[in-house]
Structures are given as C-alpha cells and as structure tokens.
Amino acid sequence: MSASVRGPHGRRPWKLTPARLGLYGFLIICALFFLTPLYVMIVTSLKDMPEIREAHILGLPTAPSLAAWSKAWFAACTGLTCNGIRVGFVNSLRIMIPSVIVSIIVGAITGYALSFWRPRGAVLLFGVLIAVAFIPYQVFIYPLVRIFSYLGINNSIAGIVTIHTIFGLPTMTLIFRNHFAALPEELFKAARVDGAGFWRIFGVIMLPMALPIIVVAVILQVTGIWNDFIFGLVFAGRENLPMTVQLNNIVNSTQGEREYNVEMAATLLTAIVPLVVYFVSGRWFVRGIAAGAVKG
Amino acid sequence: MRIGSRLSTHLALAPALLIALVAYCGAMGWTIWISFTNSRMLPSSVFVGLRQYSSLLANERWQVSVQNIAIFGVLFIAMALALGFVLAALIDQRVRAEGLLRSVFLYPFSMSFIVTGLAWRWLLNPTLGIEKVGHDLGLAWFRFDWLVRPERVIYTLVFAAVWHAAGLVMAIMLAGLRGVDPEIWKAARVDGIPAWRAYLFIVVPLMRGSFATAVILLAVSVARLYDLSVAMTNGGPGIASEVPAKFVMDHLFERGNVGLATAAATTMLITVVAVLAPLMYWQYRQPARRPV
Amino acid sequence: MFTYRSAGFAVAAMLALATPAIAQEQRAEVIHWWTSGGESAAVKVFADQFQAAGGTWVDTAIAGGANARTAAINRTVGGNPPAAMQLNTGKQFDDLVENDLLANVDAQAAAQNWQAILPPSFLEAVTRNGHEYAVPVNIHGQNWLFYSNDALAKAGVQPPNNWDDLFPALDKLKAAGMIPLAFSGQKNWERNLFNNVMAGRGGHDFFVAFWGKRDVAMVKGPEFRNIAETFKRLRNYVDPGSPGRNWNDATSLVIQGKAGMQFMGDWAKGEFTAAGQTPGKEYGCTVLGDHGIAYVMGGDVFVFPQLKDANQTKAQQLLARVLLEPDTQIKFAQKKGSIPVRLDLDTSSLDACARKASGWIHNANAQVPANEMLSPPALTGAIEDLISQYWNDPGMTTDGFITRVANTLTQQF
Fold first, then answer.
1. Phi, psi of C59 (to 5 degrees)
2. Which of B262, B267, B277 is nearest to B48 (CA)?
3. ipTM of the shown complex
4. Are C341 and C325 in contact (CB under 8 A)?
5. Strand locations in C137-205, DSSP E?
6. Which three-class secondary structure state does DSSP give residue A46?
C-alpha cells in the first residue's frame, strides 16, 4: 500500500509513523555530515597549540578556552599592527550593505525586464551575462582597474559597490528572470489590460510575489560580498579594506608560524554575519503567496 | 507595447547594457587580445600569434585540469541537485525545528573555503582524520585515503563541494516548492497518487524554473572552482586535482604568465559560448516565456 | 632676563614648531606580506628604525606573496602606487623595470658601497642594465636540514654530513619506528626539496646551469639523473599523510620527536622557538652537500615605484637607507630568523644556526643563489609542476621526467 500524498499542508502531523521516523532519521544523519567540519573548527578553536599539534582533531579540548577567540578578534597580528580582525568589521559592513542593495535592485529590474517585456536583443544580452559568469573573474581585474582609474572611482566605496554590482549581475538577473518567467502570464496580462505600466507592475505586483527569491538573492549576495577578498583588496582603497583582508593575513602567512586555533576562531567570527542573515531570512520562506494572488 | 513602457524597459535595462558592453565585452575583448601577446607579469603588446595557445594545449597540467573539471562538474551538479531537492522536499513536510535544520544545511555556504578547506583536509587526511578514527576504533582494515591518492582525489573535492552547495540548492528548491499551488497537493491526494510519484511527475516539472536556476548557479560555481581546490589539496597530489580556474589564477599572478592565463580564460569562454549559444537559440525559437 | 636656558627653550620651541611639518612629509606606505606573529615583530624593527630616522611607516600588510604583488601592481597601474613594496630577491620585478615603473636606488648603492658589503649574487640580483632597483634586506637559507636530537638518539644515529650519510640514517630511523623524513607535500616544498638535492649533489655550478642557463645538455647527462633518482628515493622515507600537509605541521612532527628530520628553510626556526626549543639542544641544523657546503640563499627586497610627489620620494630614499643600516639588519635578523644581508656585521647575537650561515656567506664557493634569482616565475612554475608530478605520480619514470624537463627548459617564457 502506498502512502497517499500528505502534502505540506494543514496542521503539523504529530503521529510518529515509520515514514516519519525515516524522515527524521535521514535528516539527522545528513545534519551530522553537515556539522562535522564545524565541530572540528569549533573544537580546534578552543584548544591550545600544543594540544593541536598532537593532532586528535575530533577530540574534545582538555581545557577549553576562549583565548583564541579573543586573540582573533582583538589581538591577532595582521601585519605591523596586532589588532585582530575587528579592524575591518565596520568596513565590511560599509561595503556590504550598499553593494547588496544596489546589486539586487539592478538584478531584479533587469530580470523583470528580460522576462516579461522581451525587448529586442534580450536573449543576446542575457546570453552575454550568463556566458561571462563562467569566466574566472580574476582576468577582469586589470582592465577594470584601468577603467576605474580613468573614471576616478578607483580605491573608493563607490568603486567596490560598482564592482560587486558588475559581478553580481549575471546571477541576480538569472534568478529573478527565472522566477518571474515561472509566474502565470495571466497575471501580467490582466495588469496590462488594467492599464498598468512597466514600473507599476513591477512595484505593485511582481515585487511582493518575489519575496522568496529575494531571500535567495540576499543569501547569495551577502555571502559572496561578505566573503570577498580580492575585489575588496584591489578596489576598495586602503582606508576601506574589508575584514577578509585581515582574515587572510591571519590565515595565509606563507613562512610564518600558524596558530590554527586563532585561524579557526577568526573564520568562525567572520561567518557570523552571513549566518545571522540566513537565520533571520527564514521568516520569509513562506508558502503560497503567488498561488493566493492568482486564485483571488 | 506602448511607447511609455518601451522607454521604461530600455531605461531599466540601461545599467545592465552598460555593464555588459563596457565591463564584460570590453574586458573580455582585452583578455582575448592579450592572449595573443607574450605578456608575463604585466601586459605587453608584443604579438606572438598562437604561441600561447599551442603551449596551452601541450600543457599537461591544463589537460588534467580540463579532465578534472568535466568529472567534477557532472558529479557535483547531479549530487548537489539531488541532495538539495531531497532536503527541501523533506523539510517542507512540516518538520519540527525547520528553521534550525534549514540553518544546519545552509551554514556551509556562508563559510569561505580558505579555512573550512583546512578542516576538510584534516578530516580526509589518512593520518589525522576519518581513517585514523576508524583505526582507533579498532577497524584496522578501514581505509579512507582518497585525499592522497591521485586517481581518487577529485572525488574528495566533489564531496566537499556538495557539502558546501547543497544548502543553497535546498533554499532555491524550497522557494520553488513554496510557490507550488496547494491545490495541486489536494488534487493529487484526491486522485490517490502516492507521494513520491506526485513529487517526481507533477511537482518537479512545475519547478522547472528552480531547477534551471539551480543548475546554472551550480554550473557557474563549477567553472569558478578555485578556492576549494587550493584549500583542500592545492591541486595535488602532484597535479591530480588541478582545475581550470586555478590554472588561470596561478598563471595570472603567482607565475607571472598573463599571456598563458588569458589564453586559458579565452579557451574557457569559447567552450562556454559553444554550449550556451545553441541552448539560447533553441530558447529563442520557443514563443513561450520559458525559463532558461 | 636672558639665560641660556630660556634661549634653549626658545630654540626648542622653534624646532618643535618646525619638525612636525618635516616629519609629516616623510610618509612611506609599504606593502608587504609579513603577517604572522614572528614576522610582525620583524617588520616592526623596520618601522621603528624608520620612525627613529624621522620617517612615518604606513603599513599595508597583505598575506600571501601573490596577493601582495597583485595589490601592489594594480595600485601602481591604477595611479596610486605605494612608496615601497616587498618582493623576493630575484626576477619578480623584471617587468616593472621594463615598464619604467620603478625608481632606481643608485644613489643609495653608491653611498652605502654595496659593492663591498653585499654578497655578489645579491648585488647582481638587484641590478638591471647597470642600475640598482631594489634594496635587499635579508638572506633566507632555503636548504637547511633540521633534525630532532631526541629522535636521532633513539635510533642511534649521528647527524649526517652529506647525502651518502643520509640514507643509512633514514633507514635506521625507519627501523626505530619513527617517520624518517617529515615532509609537507605541497608543490613549492616539493620544488624546495628538489632544489635541496640539486644543490647538495650538483653544487653551485650545476644549480646555476640548470635554473640560470637552462643547460639542456647537462639535464640529459648522468649527474641530473643521479639527482632525480636521489630525489625520488627520498619518497620512501615520508609518511602517507604527507600530501597536502602544511610545512609547519611537518616541523611539528620533528618538534615532537615523532619524525627524525625535515628539509626546510630557516623560517622553520620560528616554529621551534614558539615551541620553546633551542638549536643545539632539542634540535640541530645543518646543510648537506657532496661538494662541501652549498648554501642556497634567497631573500626579500623592497622596490620603490616612481612617485610624482618630491616629498614622498625623499621618504623612499630615507627608507632605502634605513633598511640596510647595521643596527636595523641585526635587529631584524634576530626577529625574523634570517641572516643579515650585509657581510660586514658582528653576528654573535644571533642563534646557533644563523651564526653557522653567517660564516658561509663569506665563502663564495659555499653560496648558491636561489632559483628565484635565476629563473623567471613562469619557468619556475612550469618546472615545479613537473617536479610535483614526478614525486607524486608513480607512472612517471625518471626518463619521462628528464624528457619533459628538457622540453620545458627550451620553451620561451
């Protein structure tokens, strides 16, 4: 006998059927697989170097201490100064917030225009955007440096925001265009019949229905921009260097001694902002906004 | 289309057009031009014809990189899609602690690979990680040394990459699943269709957009695979886990061979265009607004 | 009432008003990659000495040589160059000189008499077309052999003096159940080990013929075959966990006495020191050579991009001078683990390994310039790939390796 479709609808079932047990079992096993590297990182960050040298990576720390965390944030050496990664934290925020906003807005509008309105050359433009996304972006650094230097926006926040918009455009356009393209055409046609124009349809109808995909866009952009290193290094200017530059300095020294506990702590500290964003974004993963609009 | 809307459309597309022309086509055009020169650490304008390309094709490391990315790409996309979809479908079943589970699967995506790669390297190293744990538990026969075996190392990269990306695929699938009309579930239940059939034959086709998005995002991260390769194996042992983006990166900066690096990047572009152009053409011929 | 004291105060006041203006002008932004704890202490020596001479050091540290070079070069072509940037002693700044982006330091070289105080290979490494373009600041020995006295004692082995002694020693370590050779299986360390064998077995002339002159005939000869086979033979003495291991983790094995020896550069001393060990007591250091000591010397230099601002140019010149002053050199060497690049200094305050090396740099026959000084990064990289394949891929025979190396040496870079 096959189980009939319960479907994710209605009240949460609280009877523990074998199917339900299997479900939870699988999820928990997957969760363990996903959590293992995090466990190693946390555990290492709580040990001291002699214990780490013994190399029992899965072992719990014998005398757990937050010294590495404190050092990573306040006192790790990142060059001449030993002020930890907090130095760049504000800069990372100053870079990330405008970059995320601008890149998502530009991507959403472009995706919307390409999906419903289909002007001439739309497919070509879309093709160029996608094709370029496959090229290692480092080759673009030198020509863009020359262009930006000519435009005078090199080494500034405006410069780095523009860079993130440029390199975020392909993926942002892609996800918005695909999301809008999957919406029923009747919605669009009905609005046109009512006399709504380009911007009105965008603001009043499409944007509210794009909430789940906006969440995905935010996740992508926050992660990509917050963890970005090379663009921040080259385009942001010495006064605006993001936290990843200090993180790189802690983690990447070629010939110096490596303190793995501090490195792990620094990486975990750096990951906190995207993690908070992910956690908070969950509220917007709601069901049925599009469906409700169509039926109503 | 009325004139006002047409103007608005073109205005709205202006930033994208500007970026595409200047930043993309301009920079890519420069890159292609440089691949015909003998540029070392800085761009030079000494034309050398196809010398960089013939070096490239004869370069063993490049050949291995191309093979590796093909294997990696197929396995990674297939596994990430499958795992991401399954996780999304399961989480969608009104499980308890949905928020927590979602975060557990999504958090790998937030961590940059530089140090997470180190954790994975320790876990997969035969003398430090899982194999050692197996031996400590008394299982002397247990082997998991793929990281140090040249013919197996690429699979460890797939493993770590799936760990990293499955959460994002899950998020995309979840967004797509939540756009599916609840009436569908009701109708399927009324018709007595079993759960797995409903998912596979009704829901998945409805989520074509999400799958397309996921596939392209995954494909893009395959092409861009660099950080992971550096963090976990640095292309080793030997050159067994080299990948094209790392080839370009290494030759662009560390090895001061901009000519060779741009030749490699141009080759990647040609490959991508060769695959995308027919796809796009096929799309364009369809009148309906299908997702790519 | 006029007193000398009040006059003194007046003069001091006038000077105090005048000096800040002068001090402000001597700002130098320096891009470098010294970011770990020990490196940080070392670069602080430079900054402090510069400060004491009236300059202001503005620090832009970026870990990873390639990252730092990328940032510095893009800054330079983007119109906002730093006052000074770090590079390795060698051919990394060839392109910068060719594109006329660097200011020369001929004046400094003459004033400090570099002909007399620098080892000839280092002077050569910073000279292009008769002009000096870089200031060398240290010498790092790349081919040391570090060993754990504890481990050797347990195996009943004496520290080896040459390559023939080495293999019996490694065998005894293996028999005693320890890891004979602690190794970090990453491409650059594989190349480092190969260079170590080449310098040790082939000596100065062979090393220079390979990397500098790209002598294909020598590569196809029996001496190179011997070197390649010795290199491959070493692989029998490393443990299965070596691929991908970081160099510090290999040093860690020696520190704990789990492994007997490690071939590494003198920066490894930093790890020993951090673990509380001293040379001569818990660990020892030596350089193996079949033809006597062959000490492979690399190092770091600072180059100075052309600047438009005359005040900044003065700051550059001040910095260039300060870097090579005797006091700066000794203090820096103490912190960094390298040895001073000047030949005329009293090195008795450095550790035992550094003192050994300071003796060698006075002997022209004992010195081998590092491959960075002889070959461009592109060639080094291509050979590095081949060495790594040879080490890791059981399918590559010595003949295959030799053929590929010969082919690569004839390529244009």
1. -95, 125
2. B262
3. 0.86
4. no
5. 140-141, 144-148, 179-181
6. coil
C393–B240: do the CB atoms touch at under 8 Å? Answer: yes
pLDDT digits (tens, 9 = 90+) for B244-279: 999 999 999 889 899 999 999 999 999 999 988 888
Return the axis-axis angle of helices B98-110 and A211-226, rounded to nearest 10°: 40
The pLDDT score that the predictor gives to residue B97 is 82
pLDDT value at residue C2: 54
Task: Say how many residues make up chain C.
Answer: 413
Half-sphere exposure of C345 (CA within 13 A, CB side): 29
Q: In this structure, what is the dihedral angle of CA atoms B81, B232, B144, C385, given to the nearest 10 degrees?
A: 120
Interface of B with C in 217-276 (CB under 8 A): 232-240, 250-251, 253-257, 260
Paired strand residues for C131: C128
> Which chain A residues in 81-110 lie under 8 Å from chain B, judged by CB atoms?
106, 109-110
User: What is the C-alpha end-to-end distance of chain B, expressed in Å?
Assistant: 24
Higher pLDDT, residue C111 or B99: C111
Question: Residue C10's pLDDT is what?
Answer: 53
A286 band by pLDDT with thresholds 50, 70 and 90: low
- Give the count of Cβ contacts less than 8 A between chain A and C: 118
H or E stretch covering C264: strand C259-264
β-partners of residue C148 are C283
Answer yes or no: do B24 and A128 touch at CB < 8 A. yes
Residue A282 in tokens: 């969950």
Is B269 in CB contact (< 8 Å) with chain A? yes
Q: How confident is the model at residue B212 (pLDDT cuts 50, 70, 90)?
A: confident
The shortest CB-CB distance from B127 to any of C73, C187, C241 is to C241
Residues C44 and C38: their CA atoms lie apart, in Å, by 10
3-state secondary structure of B61: helix
Q: Please name the residue that has the structure tokens 């956690």.
A: A279
Look over chain C and give the mean of its residue pLDDT values, rounded to a whole number.
90
Give the integer Cα–Cα distance in Å for C31 and C73.
Answer: 10
Q: Which residue has the higher pLDDT, C170 or B128?
A: C170
Q: How far is CA B126 from the centre of its chain?
A: 27
The structure tokens 């020693």 sit at: C169
Instruction: Tell me the C-alpha distance between C84 and A214, whole Å.
Output: 45
Q: What are phi and psi of C99, to 5 degrees?
A: -90, 10
A112-122 burial code (b ≥16 CB/10 A, e <16): bbbbbbeeeeb
Tell me the percentage of chain A whose pLDDT exceeds 70: 89
Bridge partners of residue C175, in order along the sequence: none
Contact B260, B61 (CB under 8 A): no
Distance of CA C264 to CAs A22, A236, C396, Å? Answer: 53, 37, 25
- B41 close to A (CB below 8 A): no
What is the enclosing helix (H) or strand (E) of A30?
A: helix A18-45
C13/C17 Cα distance (integer angstroms): 6
Q: How far apart are CA C238 and CA A82, in angstroms?
A: 37
**DSSP letter string over A195-224?**
T--HHHIIIIIIHHHTHHHHHHHHHHHHHH
Residue C144 pairs in a beta bridge with C264
Read off the pLDDT of each residue in A128-157 and give the average, rounded to a whole number.
90
What is the tens place of the pLDDT at every residue in C179-237?
999 999 999 999 999 999 999 999 999 999 999 999 999 999 999 999 999 999 999 99
pLDDT of residue C78: 85
Strand partners, C140: C298
